[in-house]
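ingest -> validate -> predict -> emit
validate: passed (alphabet ok, no gaps, 146 aa)
predict: started
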Amino acid sequence: MTNSKVLYQTTAINTGGRNGESHLPDKSFSVRVSTPKAMGGPGQGSNPEQLFALGYSACFNSAVEHMMKEDKISGKSQITATVALHSDPTDGGSKLAVKLDVGIEGQDTATTQELANRAHAYCPYSKATSGNIDVTVTAVAYEADK
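emit:
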C-alpha cells in the first residue's frame, strides 16, 4: 500500500474459487460464484467478470458524474461495462478486456467522449487497470427514462 491517506477500504472473502461463495465479513452481502456455462461450468451463480463489470461501471459512473459537476453539466449518465475473458498465450492463462460505453443525457457524443476521457484518467478502477488490461472507452447516445 502507499503512504497516501486511506479514504475507504473493504474486505471480501471467497471460498471455492469460481465455484464457491464470496461474502463480506459481516455477511451483509453474499454471492454464489459459478463458472459460466460458456466456460464449461454450471452457470448457476455470478462470476468474477460480472462482479468486476458491476464495480467498474459504478466507479466509472462516479468519475463521470464528478467531471459533469466540474463542468456544471446536469442530467443522468449511464455506463455499460462489458468485461471479456480472453485466453492469454503468454502464459496459457487468461486475461481481461473491458469496453465502457458512456452515455450522458442531453450531450452530444463529442462532449460525452471528452468527459469520458477525463473520467478515465480520474477513476480508481481505470488507474488500477492502466497498462494491465485493454480498456476501451466509447461515447454513446443516451436519454434517461422519464
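DSSP finds three helices and six strands in the chain.
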